[in-house]
Write a structure and sequence with these properties.
heterodimer, A: 363 residues, Purple Acid Phosphatase, chain A, domain 2, 2 domains, six-stranded mixed β-sheet, 14 strands, globular, B: 164 residues, mainly alpha, two-stranded antiparallel sheet
Chain lengths: 363, 164
């Protein structure tokens, strides 16, 4: 893994992506989260940048996609992005996975307006071999917008993330953040497991098999870990409290269903760090189902996979979750699958679900 | 032979046989505790309690063989070589979920007729896992059916409840 001393954890691989945002609290920050000036007035900021008042268009006050009050016109710019995950490609022996992923890619490329970027939430491949990764990368090369990756357990536990870090993450740590048009985006490494393999003397393949079996509890619970939680706190220290925060993780950042490891052990620590912020939207994968939850100020959305759907566990009802998709017909190759369009509009995160059960992709 | 001797012999034989069967019963009870066994608190309506006349070795053998089939089914459930595309039952149906064996036999649109649970497991092996069709009533499908039923134990019988 190359480590460039000049690069910080929040610098994208291809160079800094500056974004300037003015928020209701009057803070101005650029893509590296340096607070440029704490008490600049809006007028002072406009003059310095040489912008005219007309370019700062008031954001729409309300939108039918979002509930809750819209924030004032000084908010971040509106933008959209695509969210994709869990393609579990297995190479040549499973051509249907490729068909499904390519259908999503075609739809993303055809999306109007073009998404600013694509977030890929992990489990790109199933067994973690080099051949599987190359097969996946060849398919993903067809995607037009730029892709940001984070790791799922399948991407990680054969070679402990070596290939994924070098080819997909390309940063010193598997977690990172960046700003985009006034929204703060965090990509977390949620599929982190304590060492369950050394004492049992497992081979890499056995380790991958245990970590990759959804109902194998001997893998232990997923967790973010102290180092990552500390990084989250530092990272959020200079972000304005009413900026839209988009958090991406492979695993749900709440206690959904432990027998299938739909779980993050230190979820409540992460939720506490996110608590002071007004607009927090967490997108997670791993559950292979559409599912929505809300804890205090944080909304959680479980996203669809492009490989296979999972049934809803019993805690779906006891936790009062929502967003249930209709039951899949196993004869239909696209049932229970899909992807999502993520949005920030009026400073509020939201999303649109492209659920193929309701509308299968055309060839 | 004198009647009293005959009686005495009889008593000895009866005592021997009864002590043997008592020993066998005791042994049977111990062995059955080792096997996984779900005993409902109150038996469902309409089910006959096991007659005390049922031979104990039959009870034991039933437990042993059924458990063996269930365990085999559990292994096959996660077997990625049942099919050719690298998938296993456990991926879409972890812990036998979303299989609803309590609703079979029923009409399945994939077949266009009423089928048994084994037939539909076979359908999944052929279509979803892209594997060879298995023999109905053979060991593999019976084991898979056994695991599926065990994983869904306690569900109320609800034959014909519609599914996709």
């Amino acid at each position: 893994m190359e480590s460039d001393p000049k690069k910080t954890v929040d610098t994208p691989a291809d160079g800094p992506a500056p974004s300037i945002g003015i928020t209701g609290a009057g803070h101005v920050y650029d893509g590296h989260r340096n607070v440029v000036a704490r008490h600049w007035s809006r007028r002072g900021f406009i003059e310095t940048l040489g912008l005219s008042g007309a370019t700062l268009v008031a954001a729409p006050l309300a939108s039918q996609f979002f509930s809750g009050s819209a924030i004032a016109a000084f908010a971040a710019q509106d933008f959209t992005f695509a969210i994709l995950a869990d393609s579990h490609t297995m190479g040549e022996k499973n051509p249907l996975m490729k068909v499904r992923l390519e259908a999503a890619i075609r739809q993303i490329n055809a999306q109007v307006p073009t998404p600013d970027f694509v977030m890929y939430l992990g489990d790109a491949i199933h067994d973690g071999t080099r051949e599987e990764f190359k097969y996946f990368e060849e398919i993903m090369a067809q995607l037009q917008p730029r892709v940001y990756y984070l790791a799922g357990e399948h991407d990680w536990y054969l070679d402990m993330g070596e290939y994924f870090m070098r080819h997909m993450i390309q940063r010193p740590q598997p977690w990172y953040s960046f700003d985009h048009k006034g929204a703060h985006i965090m990509a977390l490494h949620g599929s982190n497991l304590n060492d369950f393999w050394t004492a049992r003397k497992l081979t890499p393949e056995e380790r991958m098999h245990v970590a990759g079996t959804v109902n194998d509890q001997s893998q232990g619970p997923f967790m973010l870990g102290r180092q990552q939680l500390d990084w989250m706190e530092q990272d959020l220290a200079h972000v304005p409290k009413d900026a839209p925060i988009l958090v991406f993780s492979h695993v749900p950042l709440y206690y959904y269903y432990r027998p299938w490891n739909f779980w993050t052990q230190d979820a409540e620590d992460a939720q506490a760090i996110l608590k002071p912020f007004k607009h927090v939207q967490v997108f997670h994968a791993h559950v292979h189902q559409l599912v929505e939850h809300r804890i205090a100020n944080i909304r959680f959305t479980g996203i669809l996979s492009t490989s296979w759907p999972h049934p809803y566990p019993e805690t779906y009802h006891s936790l009062g979750l929502s967003g249930q998709m209709p039951r899949s017909n196993p004869a239909m190759p696209f049932d229970g699958l899909g992807w999502h369009v993520g949005k920030v509009a009026g400073g509020i995160p939201g999303h649109e679900d492209i659920l193929w059960t309701l509308k299968p992709p055309t060839s | 032979m004198k009647a009293s001797v005959k009686l005495g012999l009889w008593l000895v034989v009866v005592a021997a046989v009864s002590s043997l069967s008592t020993a066998a019963l005791l042994q049977a009870r111990d062995r059955s505790r080792e096997l996984p066994r779900e005993v409902p608190k109150s038996p469902p309506r309409g089910v006959h309690l096991q007659s005390p006349q049922l031979p104990s070795d039959l009870v034991v053998k039933t437990h042993e063989e059924t458990t063996r089939a269930i365990r085999r089914g559990e292994r096959l459930w996660s077997d990625r070589s049942l099919g050719s595309n690298g998938q296993s039952c456990n991926m879409c149906h972890p812990d036998g979920s979303a299989t609803h064996p309590e609703t079979y036999p029923k009409f399945k649109q994939q077949y266009g007729r009423v089928v048994t649970a084994q037939e539909f497991i076979n359908w999944c092996i052929v279509v979803a896992l892209r594997g060879p069709s298995q023999e109905l009533g053979g060991e593999v499908l019976t084991a898979l059916e056994a695991y599926q039923a065990y994983a869904n134990r306690g569900q109320e019988m609800e034959i014909g409840a519609a599914g996709p």
